[in-house]
């Protein structure tokens, strides 16, 4: 099983509504991409970060998710909101 974790530092001007919309769009990917087993999004208002925790059966499934048109559409929404990003993928 693969864990895919992303932490974003949001731009200061990003509103609470935009963060909620980003969260909803990311969570909605579970309905569209069957390879995505689990997804959880957290918004930390205290330090301006958001985190994504997701699980996949394999690296191949993670690759399919990352190239999926629905994921790429969400990425296009997210990129302008983000000041920085860290990613950690690992096998469990």
Topology, element by element:
Elements lengths: L1 E9 L5 H17 L3 E9 L4 E8 L2 H9 L1 H10 L3 E10 L1
Antiparallel strand pairs: 1-3, 1-4, 2-3
Descriptive report:
The longest helix has 17 residues, at about 15-30. The model has no long low-confidence stretch (mean pLDDT about 95). This protein has one domain (about 1-90): Alpha-Beta Plaits, CATH 3.30.70.100. The radius of gyration is 13 Å and the shape is globular. It has a 4-stranded antiparallel sheet with strand order 2-3-1-4. Helices cover about 40% and strands about 40% of the residues. It is of the alpha+beta class. A hairpin with a 4-residue loop joins β2 and β3.
How do you describe this structure in short?
This protein is of the alpha+beta class.
Order the strands across the largest sheet as they lie in space.
2-3-1-4
Q: What string, H for helix and E for strand, traces the elements in order? A: EHEEHHE
CATH architecture: 2-Layer Sandwich
- The CATH topology is Alpha-Beta Plaits
- Structural class assignment: alpha+beta
Radius of gyration: 13 Å
Number of domains: 1
Poorly predicted runs = none
Strand content: 35-45%
Helix content: 25-40%
- Helix count, per DSSP? 3
Shape: globular
Main sheet?
4 strands, antiparallel
Briefly, what CATH class? Alpha Beta
Task: Please describe the structure with a list of short key phrases separated by commas or semicolons.
Alpha-Beta Plaits, 92 residues, globular, 4-stranded antiparallel sheet, alpha+beta
